[in-house]
Amino acid sequence: MLRSVIHSQTAKNDLTSSYRGMRIREELLSQFPLYKCPMCGLSEPRTLDHYLPKSKFPEFSVLAVNLIPVCYECNNRKGNRVSQKPESQFLHAIFHRVPKMTPLLIAVVQFGKEARIDFHIDSNAAMPKELIARVRYQFDKLDLENRFRKEASNILAVEIYHLARHFPFPRTPKAVAAVRLC
């Protein structure tokens, strides 16, 4: 009965009117003192993701625990995906906690003509397999390998630039010693 009431156009308009007026959005964004998106850890969260998509679950469209501050790119890539299977679900920033000290993301740096950094999820991490499956799903669907690679490349480029300013090339013993200290 409640679901049929909520699916009526009038009820839907009433539920979403305060959201469209940005009152809820601004209040939620101000209550989450995040400086990085909880889905990618790269960008500042400036949008609210409906963990359960409002197109499929309008009754939860303004429920605070369903509105997660995320960056635009993650919100856009996530879209309105929803699944009953954990291996096809995103992590919820409030309810799914990844242990902080558990190595999960592996970075492999390869040197050739150019340095290359590859990232992948450690399937043998010491955490529940269901949680690893969610992390892997999020990693894949949000294209985090490429986004992390780009971010790491930018960081390395800045560091190399600063090193090059202080140490002339070709490599001098002084420059090599400084790099070892980093």
Please describe what this structure looks like:
With 182 residues, the protein is α+β, with helices and mostly antiparallel strands. It has two domains: 2-82; 105-181, no CATH class. The chain has seven helices and four strands, in the order H-H-H-E-E-H-E-E-H-H-H. The chain has helices at residues 2-6, 9-20, 23-31, 72-78, 129-141, 144-166, 173-181; strands spanning 47-50, 67-70, 105-111, 115-121. It has a two-stranded antiparallel ribbon. The longest helix is centred in the last third of the chain and has 23 residues, at 144-166.
Main attributes of the structure:
single chain, 182 residues, alpha+beta, two-stranded antiparallel ribbon, 43% helix, 12% strand, disordered N terminus
Q: What is this structure's SSE topology?
A:
Elements: H1 2-6, H2 9-20, H3 23-31, E1 47-50, E2 67-70, H4 72-78, E3 105-111, E4 115-121, H5 129-141, H6 144-166, H7 173-181
Short description:
The protein is an alpha+beta fold and 182 residues long. The protein is built from 7 helices and 4 strands; from the N terminus they run αααββαββααα.
Biggest sheet: strands side by side, in what order?
1-2
Helix proportion of residues, in percent? 40-55%
Mean pLDDT: 80
Count of discrete structural domains: 2
Low-confidence stretches: 1-6
Secondary-structure class = alpha+beta
**Which value, in Å, is the CA radius of gyration?**
22 Å
Order of helices and strands: HHHEEHEEHHH
Cα end-to-end separation: 63 Å
Spatial shape: globular
What is the beta-strand fraction?
5-15%
Number of helices: 7
